[in-house]
Write the structure tokens for this entry.
Amino acid sequence: MYPPISYEWTYPDGTITFSDPFFASVTQADSGDYTLLATDALGCTDQKSIHLVVSYQEIIENNTFRMVIYPNPGNGLFGVRIPVSADIIADVKVTDAAGNVVYQKDEVVFPANGQIDINLSNFEDGIYFLEVIAKDSVLKEKLILRHN
């Protein structure tokens, strides 16, 4: 696909949005089929569907939350979302594949929507790991930096 790429999400109720879905907490009402349509600068498209099933027992037992990094892979400008419902302060750290800390920012304010932006555009292409550390929780996800 040739940048820029636009994304269109269709929710189970037929609602269409151009921003990624994000759920601070998931309920059974969020269950259903989600469809993503990506369109590039040449008008080429790719479409994928996701079937989301929500089980309260699974959420309570696992009590796990995931951080979302987008776009991933990306060219260095990444959006980061974590599941929060109120402002929190966290430390953000990026390590390379060898475990070396290449980026660190302490006391980052994540607003109630849980979204911040990180600029790694000056770093070399490769695989990195992003950690968000808040109180007793650590969220860690792989991110791929690829300049085109």
